[in-house]
Structure formats: C-alpha cells, structure tokens
Write a structure and sequence with these properties.
mainly alpha
Length: 248
C-alpha cells in the first residue's frame, strides 16, 4: 500500500489536521462578528461601574412596566452594582443607576439646597434627589431634563413637611438679591404645588413618608432669613428649580 495514496495514513492525518484548522478559523471569525458589549453605561472618568447587570423586579414604590432602566438623562442606561461604596444614597448600594461620583454630587446639591439643621425636610429632599439612582428610575422620569413624577400622597407629604422652610439660603442672584425661596411662596397651596408634579401609579415615585416635622425651621411669614448673616460669594444654581423637584 502506498505511503502517499488517498487512503494512506499520511493522507488521513493531513485531512484531519486541515479540517480542525478550518473549524478553528470558523470559530474565530464567528466570535469576531458578535456585537460588542454595550459601553454606553460605562463612565469614562472612572471605573466605578461594571457592565450593566439585570435588575430585580421594581419595588412597590415604582411598579412600572419599564423595568431595569435608568432615567433618560442619567449617566447610565441600565442599573448596576457600584464597585465603590456610595457616600450618599446608600439605599441604592446593591443596585443603582448612580456611581460614587454621582452620589457625591447629589449629596453636595442637597446640602446646598436645604440646611441639615432641618433634618426632616433635608431627608425628604435627599430622598427625592436620590431617586435618580433608583434601578427603575425610568418608571417615574419622563423625557430628557424632565422632573420626577411623584405619587400624590408623597407629594402632599413633601409639601406639608417643607412648606415655609427656606431653600437655597446663602446664594445670591446676579443683582445681589437673595436667591432663597419657599415651596409655598405666593400662597401656593399643596394641591396647586402638586398639580404639575404628580402622576398616577405605577408611573410615580413614592419614598418613605416621615411623621416628624421641622417645626423650628418653619417661617410662615417668609421673612426669617437674615440675608446679611448668610451672605456669601456663591452664585445661584438655576438647576435647583428644575432638576428632580420640578419648577419650584
């Protein structure tokens, strides 16, 4: 029998090697054609966020059919488990639409917007601001740059707690006048305040509703802020009136 014939051992080994090589090449080509991972949810400035991971079913306070999606204008498209500890909004540590950098920014905004000396209202504002970290934030956020939509009872409670409390104390407008404001300025009622900020379930946000009140922070006459005592060089932040809380 010929060593190089079509049925020879050499020939059989040659064809076996060739077939294996073709199979390996096919696998490489197939892998190269697979779509790349979604990198839109990664943050270029740091490595806080891994690739998006599936979120659990929405909590009872959201209940939307738009599951597992972040707010339209959030940094990320899908929720994930932050790699670093969140310095604020810690309730979203296990699954979040925020990384540690986002949470730090929210903390700064809340502390500038409302004094920590008014702990109940401060906690309310923190809850509202941190809602952008909710793993199902798309349920109660509308279009880009929109405000959060609140469940009616939660909005009314927010008004009850924070009405007559001065916001944005310590900032001044370009003309030198104080930029502080009140939720109920001009005699706006709870129903009027909430009319443009509420939505029916499941498309609304409902956080924890406190029972305590910041009585010492209430100023029904709206003239309790000593402007000269708190005057600083800070500039007013126009986003306070639109982001998350709606146009106050």
């Amino acid at each position: 029998q010929s060593t190089w014939g079509p049925n020879s051992q050499v020939s059989m080994r040659f064809w076996s090697v060739l077939v294996l090589a073709l199979l390996a090449l096919s696998a490489v080509v197939s892998a190269a054609r697979k779509p790349q991972k979604d990198v839109d949810s990664w943050l270029s400035e740091n490595d806080d966020a891994p690739a998006p991971t599936p979120a659990p079913k929405p909590a009872a306070d959201s209940g939307s059919t738009q599951q597992n999606k972040c707010a339209p204008d959030a940094t990320y498209r899908f929720p994930f488990k932050p790699r670093r500890k969140l310095p604020f909004c810690a309730e979203y540590q296990e699954l979040s639409c925020c990384d540690s950098k986002d949470a730090k920014g929210i903390q700064k905004t809340v502390n500038e917007l409302i004094s920590a000396e008014c702990p109940v209202c401060h906690r309310f504002v923190a809850d509202l601001k941190c809602s952008q970290c909710h793993p199902n934030a798309a349920a109660f956020w509308l279009d880009e740059f929109s405000s959060i939509r609140l469940c009616e009872d939660f909005c009314l409670a927010f008004y009850d707690v924070c009405a007559d409390v001065a916001f944005d104390v310590g900032r001044f407008n370009a003309d030198g006048t104080s930029a502080h404001f009140y939720l109920n300025a001009g005699g706006v009622s709870a129903a009027e305040f909430c009319a443009a900020r509420i939505a029916p379930e499941p498309g609304c946000y409902r956080g924890e509703i406190p029972t305590a009140r910041d009585t010492k922070c209430k100023c029904p006459t709206h003239d309790c802020v000593d402007v000269d005592a708190v005057r600083t060089a800070k500039a007013p932040n126009p986003m306070y009136n639109t982001v998350y809380l709606g146009e106050l």
